[in-house]
Amino acid sequence: MSLKGQIQEDIKTAMKAGEKDRLKVLRLISAAIKQVEVDERKELDDPSVLGILNRMVKQRHDSITQYTDGKRKDLADIEAAEIVVIENYLPTPLSDEELDKMIDEAIAQTDAENIRDMGKVMGHIKSNAAGRADMGAVGAKVKSRLNV
Predict the structure, then answer these.
(1) For residue 148, is pLDDT > 80?
(2) Which of 32, 48, 71, 106 is most enclosed, with most CB atoms within 10 A?
């Protein structure tokens, strides 16, 4: 079953179980997916849905920071609870060791020697680590490896 289909099934399950907070988050996810489908006029595949979910998690992390700075712990707690529900649909993130190994393999496979080869390495990693790693952090690690 596709990720989008799984979310729809979980909405039905949450409705039947009376899980109002979880249902609210699942409906937000569904609405975000539908909004992108309407805007782009196409059916989204799993990698696209993962991108939306990652964006939603990132937005909530930003909100938590702002709410915490504004001394609104109650709102920060709500955002944290939403993150937990959204992360159920994301693949498990790569550990630092797995990520380092993936970077080493990508550098070896693309015969990268210096910073000019960073695009090839990042393209290789992006296809393998989609949704499982923060690509900004990966880029910094690759850059430090290629600068040596």
Answers:
(1) no
(2) 106
